[in-house]
């Protein structure tokens, strides 16, 4: 099992001046830099093709860096992978759901890095799988084929795989796509619990409306990192307009169109057809509307 996180590893993920150029000559990421402390949930936000997937691949060691470096809990990518520090929760589209495999076997894959060459599970591996399934409330489905599950249940199985791995850094690619509100809330509750254990979660999402509710930090990507830091400071109308470059629809309601009185506040809505982000406040000073600050 990995050693517990300590103050000396407070810098969970550090990306410094990273550039990635593919063999066809396309530079997908240029001079990208940001840091994420341990014990945080960070949103990775940008349009499709902005470099989010490339960034995930770089963190997992799947692509060569043209320049820069990535440190994971102070270790190089190669060392972090050797120590099973990084887990990945994929998009549904990346998985062949027709492949006949049981739920418990998918979760056991998270233990492969802890096994020997023959990958024979030990008692500790089986216990880790049982604990992980219980934590995501999927114990009763362990003998089911993965393809028989709903979209939300599949997401929870892959989260269980990350838990069984005992990963300290978890990359989640669009975890809320195709899930209902109840499942989304369950996933967010689990991410918060993992954050409180000191883990690092980097969540790629188009679900803008939920970002201020559960993400401590935000990284905005458009071929490079445009901005990064605490969500309360970074997740602004101006920054999102730069990040999405007209892809989002932007509605503003104020005055008589919104109020039946002389209230000077306005509503601004940004949406890309998933959950919209609503800003509410004085013109030019709107804050994201969440359950906590709703009027």
Automatic annotation (TrEMBL):
PROSITE patterns: ABC_TRANSPORTER_1, ABC_TRANSPORTER_2
GO BP, sorted A to Z: zinc ion transport
Coiled-coil annotated spans: none
Record domain ABC transporter: where: 13-248
One Pfam family in the UniProt entry: ABC_tran
Record InterPro entries: AAA+_ATPase, ABC_transporter-like_ATP-bd, ABC_transporter-like_CS, Metal_Ion_Import_ABC, P-loop_NTPase
Gene Ontology molecular functions: ATP binding; ATP hydrolysis activity
Record-stated family: Belongs to the ABC transporter superfamily.
Protein name: Manganese/iron ABC transporter ATP-binding protein
Organism from which the protein derives: Ancylobacter polymorphus
